[in-house]
């Protein structure tokens, strides 16, 4: 007997046919019924014409990743019909548009095929080519509603909310829903054994993507300058920041903007603008992706050495080079950690979901200003562009941002001398001044060799003194990093260690493994340099499965470099095909290693 | 370069500006450039310009990239903040700095390599934005620090010290800036300080992107016979079309100018620059006419100098965007965060 609220719907359509809003409507309706959902958008690097998929996992258990299965396929794209059919799990269902005949060869005995004449129905009921195409999408939502027992009242309420007083749009959309719904009721046995049922699993939650959350976080962090060059999949971060600012960042007295967003000519300029702005005391940031990091590398090294704050969001996509720009990966870990020539290393933060994007964005500005160094937030396309169900964000109105060691005019007036790179407090973090504050505060910001007093030097000892002090600062950074998420039992000698968007799949895998009597501890790192407890965690285990989404085990490499971790202990579990990680992959690979005789 | 430290004591009777500072107070560290370098003359002109304009040293931001020219911000106004960035990227850093604090005075010092090769992209885009800054190019046609390779401003036929003459088309920063819509475009010569100082002053006071292209010969690698950027060549082919005088806000224009030849232009702070046409055919307020004049004379091998184009109408970057007058870096943080209650409202859209 199939369980309720455990079903995966995948919709195959053509890019540019307006299916996104229909799919959003479907997912939101299920969410509004109190049922946890996971949404994944698999889209091409294209505006119109190429195949695109949307996958909705209904998960009463509240898991966060995709399941790796498809129960109900909506095959709207003739181009991909064969592979879409092949992807359905045995015992599953497939909906297709029966207006046109299917190729008889394309069939499976273990899949129930449900033909609905979507085009014909919509052609009969709607006028105009565009409306007919759009309504076809809404009609399949209606059919799914009948098949899975999704509440029509919830759908109606959502449409009313979406279209507001555009009554004719509500009416036409409801008509399309009805077309699909009634056809399914009349022609199929509804509901299917796998169906949804209202529950109370979404209270206090929202459905949001990570880029929107990060853009909102930037506004709440008090960021005022954003510079960027458009690049998938980071573009929507600045779009979100701009949209929030247009509502909340208008000076009430003058009606003028209290933010400045600059679309740069390239990423070289974008990071230069960020550094110029932060040098002048504004909280500034740039969202980008892997290729942008490559271009920014020279300036990132400059900022490390001249000690300027900067916040960089790297919404990672699939590399190398242009790679697959609309697919996900975590393959920029090493290039970010050591971006730039010379002895350079950077603070990295790894949010795992949109909720953490909102928090991490704020934290990133605090850390960048405290440590006077670039802080890179490594999100990825899965987090950034997909809708996630997460607890509603909170904000403490009393939250005091950490602006770091910045001397004001009065402090400068009372000082004998100000020296920019002097480690006064012993934590490796010198004091800085902002231009225009006080004549005594002036100093020369440079990427060339400098002494602890800020002067130019080519003297070996003076140069090395500053370089060594930066290592003291690195250890201070380590102490300020967010602690990893750890689930630990002293009875377990094996563990899974992961990062960022690997979180959901790994946690689900631990549950699955426990069902097979393979008990695992868990660690999810949240920052680099690694918190001291990461080192301890590794020491406490005989084997650590390092699960990450790149080919070269970059996180594992970083653990070896920064924690002196024994490489033999760190077993890489690598997933790098561009699709999001899922639990079945982790379970399978762990069991495979397990059967080789590794302790677990 | 000189290795003798500059004495800190100044003559008590040195003239003082309205801030009570002497020209010595606007100096910087001792230059490490070659003796006779044109750049040091430009540095001296900058010192005089900001001294006379009564610029508060700590309200001046000195921006640069990489190269001989980019070293010079260390040699003037040591009480100003300096930002010696990476090669060809001074414009972006200044853009960001201005975004955060529009009340500082920005002076960027760049070279022909820094602005016309590696930094060409940033140079042109700063112009498009009409970034409010004085952008000086110390233009000598060669790379000095790497020992004499041609830069993108080298003229066709100009001879290097060793090897074959340049055959590639040069990039002329003045006509480039004119075609891109820069709102203040001047060219000077490091050997003519009298002309250069008011050009820099006008550039500093202009609200928008002000380019000052200064022919500044490289005595070590490009001052020989056959070079078109040498002192001798520049002096010979130097065609001065417009004289410029800077008149502070309070002062009346006293000098007698012949009618038709003098053109006072009011700047945003109420001061004026008076242009005196030396060449009657020149019109510095018409983009089309200036462009033709410049190209014709450029093709004839002449070096046209003076304030070559000015447009006080076009808004600078912040005003084009509608940004607040207060520096964003000083805007109170609590006003930048909408707070908990508004967050709830925002998030209701995602429920």
Short key terms for the protein model shown above:
heterodimer; A: 600 residues; alpha/beta; Pyruvate-ferredoxin Oxidoreductase, domain 3; Rossmann fold; 4 domains; seven-stranded mixed beta sheet; six-stranded mixed beta sheet; 19 helices; 18% strand; B: 351 residues; eight-stranded mixed beta sheet; three-stranded antiparallel beta sheet; 30% helix; 19% strand; globular
What does the model show?
The complex is a heterodimer of chains A (600) and B (351). By secondary structure, chain A is α/β, with parallel strands linked by helices. Chain A is built from 19 helices and 21 strands. The longest helix of chain A is centred in the N-terminal third of the chain and has 21 residues. Chain B is an alpha/beta fold and 351 residues long. Chain B has a single domain, classed as Thiamin diphosphate (ThDP)-binding fold, Pyr/PP domains (Rossmann fold, 3-Layer(aba) Sandwich). In chain B, a hairpin with a 5-residue loop joins strand 11 and strand 12. In chain B, helix 1 packs across helix 7. The termini of chain B are far apart. At the A-B interface, strand 7, helix 7, helix 9, helix 10 and strand 15 of A face strand 2, helix 3, helix 5, helix 11 and helix 12 of B.
The helix fraction of chain A, in percent, is 25-40%
Listing every helix as H and every strand as E from the N terminus to the C terminus, the arrangement of chain B reads: HEHEHEHHEEEHEHEHEEEEHEHHH
The number of helical elements of chain B comes to: 12
Using only C-alpha atoms, the radius of gyration of chain A works out to 27 Å
Instruction: Using the alpha-carbon principal axes, give the shape of chain A.
Output: globular
Enumerate the spans of chain A where pLDDT stays under 50 for 5 or more consecutive residues: none
**What is the structural class of chain A?**
alpha/beta
Strand content of chain A: 15-25%
Spatial ordering of strands, largest sheet of chain B:
2-1-3-4-8-7-13-9
* Major sheet details of chain B: 8 strands, mixed
**CATH architecture descriptor of chain B:** 3-Layer(aba) Sandwich
Number of strands of chain B: 13
- Terminal-residue CA separation of chain A: 33 Å
